[in-house]
């Protein structure tokens, strides 16, 4: 186990160092949920894991720091379709990929008019190598680390009906190459193996869009996320369900434009996720994950999430080696 903790310490240091060396996602936290959705649990060699999800992020809380403005004249909605796949090459090595399609809407109600903007398009993609250091089906403990790039597949130069290029937070893509670091840990309880406690750390170190608005340079703030949860597989009638409860903490540093910090960006958020997974069979799972904000402190004045929800379908192709799946 000493080697495992050395891996944890090393990757954790990389996450923290990369995030804080580049203090710099947008003027609201309504971006595409890329880094928080990458990664699977370990599988058997040759197995393929697939997941198709719909993600809705509704933002109507206008905040300054941790204070909420009473007027509700602003709204932001981000809807994302997420296609994730993971192939287990060997017992200790897997490769994951995540592709997105994004729908965004921003609405501001003014005294004599309504300013509404809608965009959609192919989003950015992630590719990650995942190293399995300990397998839960063999030892009761799972430990994985991952590292990979984010590809700027999505457009970052969409224009409105007047021909004016939209701000970065309304573009489906970021226009930059980024790095994703990932740690996943899980442990079955000795007295009840159907109960699994899990933790996850995800870091995102962002590159720079050097063609923002044609001639400027834009860098989204680096982010660090911590997940801590517990799930218990249960038999309800003849159906198998896994209710779970998780906490998610997210920190994002300020965005930068032309190497200068951009006001009204960055912040920190804490959410609670009461999720439910329905095991249709040993290879197919439907999950529903509501996400409710508990605390947030934003940089300057920003819209902050009011409610978030994700629904998805998971499918395992190949040899099935585990009895339960942690969400």
Description:
This protein has 327 residues and is mainly beta. 7% of the residues lie in helices and 59% in strands. It has helices at residues 2-21, 136-139, and strands spanning 48-64, 67-68, 74-90, 93-109, 114-122, 125-134, 141-151, 178-189, 192-205, 209-212, 216-219, 223-232, 234-236, 239-252, 256-257, 260-261, 267-279, 284-298, 301-317. The strands form two sheets. It has a twelve-stranded antiparallel barrel. β4 (93-109) and β5 form a beta hairpin. The chain starts with a helix and ends in a 10-residue tail after the last strand. The model is unreliable at 1-26 and 323-327 (pLDDT under 50).
- Biggest sheet, spatial arrangement of strands: 1-3-4-6-7-8-9-12-14-17-18-19
Uncertain segments of ≥5 residues (pLDDT<50)? 1-26, 323-327
Please report the total strand number as a whole number.
19
Over all CA atoms, what is the radius of gyration?
Answer: 20 Å
Distance between the termini: 25 Å
Taking the sheet with the most strands, its summary is: 12 strands, antiparallel, barrel
- The CATH architecture category equals Beta Barrel
Average pLDDT value?
87
Principal-axis shape: globular
Number of helices: 2
* Computed structural class: mainly beta
CATH topology: Lipocalin
Which oligomeric state applies? Answer: single chain
Would you list the SSEs in sequence order as H and E?
Answer: HEEEEEEHEEEEEEEEEEEEE
Domains, number:
1
